[in-house]
Specification:
elongated; about 160 residues; mainly beta; 3-stranded antiparallel β-sheet
Length: about 160
């Protein structure tokens, strides 16, 4: 789907001295401390990004992030990356017990981690085959992008919870 340039609202984006984003719309009004929010961060990360003011008001809707001109897109992607901390589980090393609560020792794309699974419902299957979200007791969401790509040991441990 290709959008007309007119479907992308005109705006300027910059960082202030404190690193906060400043959005200036076509009307010339500047809004400091805006937050970009993806509508579908996992299933369609490029589609539907809202720019939200500190008051909660939506300032702009961007149908496709890839259609936003540089350097605004670079600033938005940088801000989104900071907000969307989601380590990827690459390997399960051990679990303390096969009932909950259970302490898991895992390897992630950001290094080794330990997480506590409070209830079995903290493991959620995504519509894409083999994708899982695992939420720790601290509220950190871990991603398993492809269950079938895990090593045999990791699959065996995880299957006991699914």
């Amino acid at each position: 789907m290709t959008l007309n340039p007119s479907e992308i609202p005109e705006f300027q984006l910059q960082r202030n001295a404190l690193g906060r984003l400043i959005y200036t719309g076509a009307d010339g009004v500047a809004h400091e401390g805006i937050t970009p929010v993806r509508a579908f961060p996992l299933s369609a990360p490029d589609e539907g990004v809202s720019l939200v003011a500190t008051s909660g008001q939506e300032l702009a809707w961007l149908p496709r992030l890839s259609q936003v001109p540089q350097p605004q897109r670079a600033l938005l992607e940088e801000e989104l990356a900071g907000r969307e901390f989601m380590p990827v589980i690459q390997r399960l090393r051990s679990v303390s017990t096969f009932s909950t609560p259970s302490t898991w020792t895992v390897d992630t794309d950001r290094g080794p981690a330990t997480l506590v699974l409070k209830v079995e419902e903290d493991i959620r299957r995504l519509p894409q085959r083999g994708r899982l979200l695992v939420t720790s007791a601290h509220g950190i969401v871990f991603l398993v992008p492809d269950l079938t790509a895990l090593d045999r040991h990791s699959k065996r441990l995880l299957e006991r919870f699914l």
